[in-house]
Amino acid sequence: MNPTAQTTEPGGEPKYFIRAEGITKVYSDGTVAVKDVDLEIHPREILGLLGENGAGKTTLTKILSGLLPPTKGRVVSPRGPVRFGSPREALEFGIGMVHQHFALVGTFTAAENVALSHRRPFGRLRLSEAKGRLEELMDASGLHVPLDVPVERLAVGEQQRVEILKVLSRDVDLLILDEPTSVLTPLEVDELFALLRRLKEGGKSIILITHKLKEVLAITDRIAVLRRGELVGDVEAAQTSPEKLARLMVGEALIAGKEAIELRTEELPRHEARREPRREGPGVLHVEGLTVRGDAKKIAVKDLSFDVYAGEIFGIAGVEGNGQTELVEALTGLRVPVKGTATIRGVEILGKDPREIYRLGVAHIPEDRWKRGLILQFTLAENAILGVQRWKEFRGPLSFLRWRKIREHVRALMKRFGIQATGPGAPAKSLSGGNQQKLIVGRELSKDPAIIIAAQPTRGLDISAAQYIRALLLEMRDAGRAILLVSADLDEVLALSDRMAIMYEGRFMTVGSPAGLDRQAIGMYMGGVVSASKEGA
Fold it and tell me: Which candidate, 268, 307, 394, 463, has a CA 20 to 30 Å from the CA of 349?
């Protein structure tokens, strides 16, 4: 039953399904993910939730769907305030969320996965009767999937349909979709949008989380824009444009009565005017025609070509999930590409073991310091020599490790890079996030690399730690190193890069000097919209 049915406006339909009032979420590490957000979700509408990475989109919807409690503020229905203690309570109220990463049991069939999502599957119906119910739901929604095939054998688009069926089978009134098109082909996107329109016509409300400007304009009735946790725009889709949305997304507030949210670039280091590096011929890193598949077997990097030269920072900006991770993994030996070439100082690296690549002068600061960068159970000393443990200075007779030399090396790293720890024997897990990142950076830069591949190097760090890492990158660049910087922090890329590219769906939308790109154009490129001048070229 629709929970808003008891309280309606004079016209017979409630003005809103639910409303967020002053919602604020502060995580335990002090991160303010959402700040004082007021937002209404109306019946029979598709609301687009737009913003960069870290804007607060997913956090806000997790609060609405019962996955997270707000730190401050409340959720209100026409019947009064509501507070969900779990996603199950939100489902019982009529709110369901389909997450970007599917929660399916791969060995179970679609029917079994849907039944599993119910506390008492279909009122304890037999599986055959449950299938009959599902077939009725598929006919009504237009979602069709094979019911007797393990979902691990289904295509990604079919798996997404199973996730949506799981939620629709609970008779929800508000369906929340988190980046639903990120793993779909263009044909599957068209099919999804046709479904969303049918659901809206059937009385459902829908929130579509996305960063793609063309898509949000094509399917939504209203668009809310979040930036750094604050609501900076709430506009009718028919009355806005990609240019206006781009300006809202990347920092120019256009809403009357809203204080402009200024870019905090004064917190970032600024590099001095200096001699430009020579960009003739292949760079230290030369990439040509690189194509890489993602985990879902979909092409994530598409025929990419570029160079990174000595003495420059080449930055890659863009919303995460557009091929940046796969690009870095291919260049560091962690993923085998489909085709293309990549050389370090003329030596081919694609398909080689990471150790071989590192010996060619590559330092890698990974985007996930816990998964790729550190072994948390190891000590500082053990982590500090990962990848360099075969250095002659660290090995004695019969290849035994010379721990006295290693500890001296670690103390030197601690002093040079400001790593706060009790000593070389301290476990890495005992360090703060900032000091863990400094340990990784110190280890990688101590290799005296020719090129540094830095992926999200300041993610999750406080201002002082982030400042320190950025200053180190500038120092290494000024010392003649080539640096490939991949970051979801647009301000960081703009402040540090000598040249930058904006990546969207596996391709570079543009490459050039940060000074030559205005913020409106950047926002459009990040949303997959090519400027009129480029389209006409």
Answer: 394
Domain annotation covers residue 465: yes
Whether the pLDDT of residue 265 is over 70: the answer is no
Rounded to whole angstroms, how far apart are CA atoms 108 and 1? Answer: 30
Closest by alpha carbon to 458, among 429, 486, 498?
486
Residue bearing tokens 């540094």:
452
Whether 290 has a pLDDT exceeding 90, the answer reads: yes
- DSSP letter string over 236-287? EGGG--HHHHHHHHHT---STTSPP----GGGS--PPP-PPPP--SS-SEEE
439 and 522, same domain (yes or no): yes
- Take residue 201 and report the two structure tokens written for it: 């016509």
Does the pLDDT value for residue 448 go beyond 90? Answer: no
The C-alpha atoms of residue 380 and residue 368 are separated, in whole angstroms, by 18
| pLDDT exceeds cutoff 50 at 367 | yes
pLDDT of residue 11: 55
The predicted pLDDT at position 254 comes to 34
- Boundary-marking domain end, from 149, 170, 191: 170
Q: What is the pLDDT of residue 210?
A: 83
Q: How confident is the model at residue 264 (pLDDT cuts 50, 70, 90)?
A: very low
pLDDT above 70 covers a percentage of the chain that reads: 83
User: Exposed, middle or buried: residue 403 (CB in 10 Å: 0-12, 13-18, 19+)?
Assistant: middle
pLDDT in tens, 4-53: 434 455 555 678 889 999 999 998 767 788 999 999 999 999 999 988 76
Q: Give how many domains the chain has, as a whole number.
A: 3
Q: Do both 180 and 327 map to the same domain?
A: no
The tokens of 184 are what? Answer: 């779909």
Range 397-420 average pLDDT: 80
- Residue 31 sits at φ, ψ, to 5 deg, of -70, 125
Note whether 118 and 256 are same-domain residues.
no
Residue 180 belongs to domain spanning: 1-94+171-262
Identify whether residues 86 and 116 lie together within a single domain: no
CA angle 419, 421, 422 (to 5 degrees): 145
Structure tokens at 134: 């599902």
What are 180's two structure tokens?
Answer: 């639903």
The strand ranges marked E within 64-199 are: 72-77, 80-82, 95-98, 174-178
Across 222-242, b (16+ Cβ under 10 Å) vs e yields bbbbbbbbbbbbbbebeebeb
Query: For 243-255, what is the mean pLDDT?
Result: 69
Residue 287 lies in a domain: no
Contact between 127 and 134 (Cβ < 8 Å): no
Using H for helix, E for strand and C for coil, what is the string for 4-57? CCCCCCCCCCCCCCEEEEEEEEECCCCCEEEEEEEEEECCCCEEEEECCCCCCH
Quote the CA–CA distance of 90 and 174 in Å, as a whole number: 10
